[in-house]
Amino acid sequence: MPRNPYTTPNEGPPEDNPSSDKNKKHEKLDRYRSNADGKDLRTNHGVRIADNHNSLKTGERGATLMEDFIFREKINHFDNERIPERIVHARGSAAHGYFRPYENAARYSKAALFQDPKQSTPVFTRFSTVQGSRGSNDTVRDVRGFATKFYTSEGNWDLVGNNMPVFFIQDAIKFPDFVHAVKPEPHNEIPQGQSAHDTFWDFVSLMPEATHTVLWTMSDRAFPRHFRYMEGFGVHTFRLIDRLEASRFVKFHWKPVAGTCSLIWDEAQKLWGRDPDFNRREMWSDIENGDALEWELCVQVVEEKDEHNFDFDLLDPTKLIPEEQVPVEPIGRMVLNRNPDNFFAETEQVAFNPGHIVPGIDFSNDPLLQGRLFSYLDTQMLRLHGPNFHEIPINQPVCPFHNNQRDSAHRQTINTGQASYEPNSIDGGYPAQTPSAPAQGGFETVQERVDGSKIRARSASFADHYSQARLFWNSQSDVEKEHIIAAYTFELSKVARPYIRERVIQRILPNISVELAQAVGRGHGIEAPSEPVAPAAELGYSSQVESAPLSLMHRLPGNIRTRKVAILAADGVDVAQVTELRRKLSEEGATGMVIAPSMAPVAGTGGDNVDSDAMLNGLPSVAVDAVIVAGGADSARRLSESGLGRYYLQEAYKHLKVIVALADGQQLLDAAGIPKDDEGVIMGDQVDDVFPAFVKALSNHRVWSRNNRANAMPA
Ligand code: HDD
């Protein structure tokens, strides 16, 4: 498989260097970036301000004067700072970067961004949660949005996908119903950022087509450990058009170079309070530290003649193409390596639209996609106050663009010339159309023969609602299955109406798995049927019963790069050991942080000190990947006497994290009641004794074999 020759930032092209100005998008953005270093404070109209602390009054204690244009401008601007948040995907964060194709991409699509492995395309990618408002928590159980704007030389291409390959509904006309059901309930605006409530479960239990995607959201994929560990999917079937104008169907995938892994539900919930910005913060600080996020853009390509060779309809967005049936081919790499300068100007004002495509890419007739093609432009009119949002710097293409669209609110472009119509002779006939051509041509829609009656109906080929839910369930590891059972049990426990709980357990879940239905039923005292109950057409048929890539275990990280490791220490710690640990972790690309009872420097045994990076309750175990208790008898005693010290280990144990105890540090294991006969509890006197086992264990992300015992831990 052709791969990009660049492997590390230092070897790479200028785009690998976030401060490089060789990126066309940054060249354009630079014109708008404004730095106030050493500058005067002025009004928006350029007048220097002498006093920014006092409004203009009639005497020192008098009323404020209407005349104070400085005060009025400042307050007036402030009063109007907010714009409507996105109706869905309101909470998000984004980063700049670039995309570079591998050699094989050009054979599928004539799009300029796929032609030259040496040519990179600037990108801006926004990750989001769907349900919560702009200020909601990062680690809620939800689908994550994964939207990328490619600023190609032929215009912007937006790949507006999710971290799950399927969607809840088959037809866009149901989107408002779905969103009304999942959003906080209308009478009291509860709950925030969650699907665990009556209206959601009422809707999805009446809409069997939602079952497959709901099952994904009940899996650990619904709370990724970090955006870098998420897969991304274009969801719909799109088309790629090659230089000979041949069209092929395609599903887009983002495969994370770092692997896939997630949080654990209890950990995710605790993070709501401990660090509501967890995912956002980690992406931000990793990029600041030079740890770029990377994905491979992959495609599953289906020749047109093979469109009907599947057990499902390619146009049905509740279905994925199992990787065993059509290989997932990497065609390029995306690197996110630069944080935005201003959240509002860039992340909030970026406007994605699946309708933004370029020559070489086209739509399919997926009825969900077709509806989206209307919705996104429409929503920007409200959110960004009119049709000129394409002029906002983050939304501008890097190529020039001219047309005869004119005026409306906040128009920036000063169009010269008299003719704002086409054809014209007054302005020489410009701007002129570009005939379509194999490359750099005008956009031409793929010619598809369509012959049918106008009809409001659902195709019979969309009737199967359960076969791929079964495929997903069968493909999960035992631990993942337990987590899914626990998720349904928890979510339904928040549903007040018993008949909705019964409907889920008795009418929906048995069609996925009787084992799942009965296990969730036991948690609710509701008897589940012993066989599927849906009509045969809905139960569907899949020639494939399992697909390994559907499990998160399939692409575990396999290394410890970018992992955050807590080194627990108190006065009396073995400082030399702490230093060695940090060095070795850093060699593996991980970060060791000294976590201590306070922020005061930690006194070492030999009179030397080590700085504390965070306090025990400031960077709790839920915010790190593994815990190492450093040696030193006094340090271990102090930590053992501290409730926070013991809790740190108990919580880490409960969340299946690797725990290392060095020399006297093992006292803390006893004090916290941590079982020592556990493959993820590693003990030794010296760093060298434990390090290889530690790296191996953390490379698997968690100590999966501990799952059952961990439930007994009270933390
Ligand atoms: Fe959507 C935002 C992804 C179906 C209507 N959607 C939005 C975003 C993502 C998705 C990632 C946030 C973009 C950003 O970061 O600004 N949406 C999806 C996926 C879907 C999907 C993967 C199904 C496969 N969406 C969908 C339908 C409709 C919408 C069927 C309407 C008919 N989506 C919207 C929207 C949003 C949006 C209301 C809100 C803010 C925005 O567009 O710009 O128009």
From TrEMBL:
Gene Ontology terms: biological process: hydrogen peroxide catabolic process; response to oxidative stress
Residues annotated to bind heme: R86, R126, F175, R372, Y376, R383
Main EC class the enzyme belongs to: oxidoreductase
Domain Catalase core: 42-430
Cofactor(s) of this protein: heme
EC number: 1.11.1.6
InterPro entries, per database record: Catalase, Catalase_clade2, Catalase_clade2_helical, Catalase_core, Catalase_haem_BS, Catalase_immune_responsive, Catalase_large_C, Catalase_sf
Active site: H89, N162
Region (Disordered): 1-46
Range of residues in the leader sequence: none
Known role: Decomposes hydrogen peroxide into water and oxygen; serves to protect cells from the toxic effects of hydrogen peroxide.
Protein name: Catalase
